[in-house]
Design brief:
The protein is mainly alpha-helical and 108 residues long. The protein is built from five helices and two strands, in the order ααααββα.
Length: 108
């Protein structure tokens, strides 16, 4: 992931509703969620939800897929892993870290 993509992803996540939305999609995993479920869970109106999903999508953090009459949104786990990898690439100047690292999502 290059710096420009990292800045775009971090900017998208630097808003409370979008951060909560992305985390909700991460919890949902590969099954994803419909806009109606997300709006209900986060208590966000559909217009605002659409705006925030668009921002996350443009940052490459969310994908969507039509399933009949529904649209299913999913967190883009590869982008999330790339972002985390970029942020921690030079962690502890190449020395073993004192904290444990969180493994990448392998089931998503």
């Amino acid at each position: 992931m290059n710096e420009s993509a990292v800045v775009k992803a971090l900017a998208a996540l630097a808003q409370e509703t979008r951060l909560r939305l992305f985390r909700l999609l991460v919890v949902a995993g590969k099954d994803g969620l419909t806009p109606g479920h997300m709006a209900e869970k986060l208590d966000v109106n559909s217009t605002a939800l659409s705006f925030h999903l668009k921002e996350l999508s443009h940052a490459g953090l969310v994908t969507s897929e039509r399933d009949g009459r529904n649209i299913i949104y999913r967190a883009e786990f590869a982008a999330m892993d790339s972002l985390l990898g970029f942020l921690t690439a030079e962690c502890c100047q190449g020395q073993p870290c004192l904290t444990t690292s969180v493994p990448a999502c392998t089931d998503c």
